[in-house]
Amino acid sequence: MRVLILGGDGYLGWPTALRLSSQGYEVAVVDNYMRRNIMREENVEPLYRVPNLHERVHLWKEHSRKEIFVHIGDLRQWDFLARVFDEFQPQVIVHYAEQPSAPYSMLRREASLLTIENNLTVTSNVIFAMREFCPDAHLIKLGTMGEYGTPNIDIEEGWINIKHNERQQKFLYPRQAGSLYHTTKIMDTDLLWFYVRTWGMRVTDLMQGPVYGLFTEETVVSDNLLTLFSYDELFGTVINRFIVQAVAGYPLSVYGKGGQTRGYLNIKDTVSCVQLSIENPADEGELRIFNQFTETFSVSELAEKVLRVGKDLGIEVVVKKIENPRQELEEHYYKPVHTGLLELGLSPHYLSDGVLEEMMKFVLLYKKDIDRHKIFRGTKWS
Ligand SMILES: NC(=O)c1ccc[n+]([C@@H]2O[C@H](COP(=O)([O-])OP(=O)(O)OC[C@H]3O[C@@H](n4cnc5c(N)ncnc54)[C@H](O)[C@@H]3O)[C@@H](O)[C@H]2O)c1
Q: What's the whole-model pTM score?
């Protein structure tokens, strides 16, 4: 089966490419290095050097004897995207290719516009390319749990039945995001739902929580195959950031009261969720939505865990509550359903002390490379 991975150079796209390639899928990856370019522009390079996509694919071939096809280009450019779709004729498209940082999207006008323009143009182009070149293919699109926000009622898995004046209908679950980036993901979902209704597309929208971790089965075989690992405020997800802060002796930055609760998952489970979605495709004319996370924690609970594991390793960790630069509820109700992927067979890797310890020991090897100035910049929402 031919799988096209859009955003294949990214934190999640690269390990997904290796997993699918190792499982015998024919894999092509597309990327324009937007993430790497923004990291350079904002002076927030990742913890260790990551070879470029051509080099990594070459290393993977040496290791596995399997070929991954590489296309470097901007998916906002129709001619480029159309050529890739026409040549490769994908049966599955995994769409990761977006500007994924909430703080970056709130940084300044240019960053906001880039996020809107990039995310919506790529998603629209993908929809049109599927219609023209592979109308029967299955699109797996990465959405985010952040689309739902933090409502004061249970969060359903994508859809909700609403009864009103004795009549009822199923609707997309109400969405109210907490950043511009998350708002573009809502707009993506609306676009997809429109074209699923109108053109009968086959779509799985994965509402993913913040991902943590470094290692998947395929990336651990060589340091040069590891995925990129960010620890700065723009691109580092909270658990990854806390691990690096602990190792650097930098106080864990808990925003405000620290009661912000989200659903998290290990990067190993991201690649499994995508594989399970490929193996169990959505129907024609179906927008299938899964809430993709395995357990929920508040920020304070995460800080406590990192503090405890650090202590076991002889690292003195300090937790510091700081003024919240974001606009968000710091204490709230949070109960999202997440049964769909478990029913497909996901067996989760939970956030144990052992998992945190393994990450911390790895990061300790790069302690001298941590630049403390990159950790916090206080991007304000207001
Ligand atoms: N990492 C997480 O915790 C997380 C959580 C929820 C949802 N997501 C979603 O998952 C997806 C992947 O996230 P990630 O952390 O791997 O991000 P990432 O930035 O590491 O990966 C995205 C990749 O897409 C590429 N890209 C962006 N725009 C492009 C364009 N116009 N043309 C070609 N390539 C382009 C980037 O260069 C990057 O390599 C994103 O859509 C993100 O919104 C991520």
A: 0.98
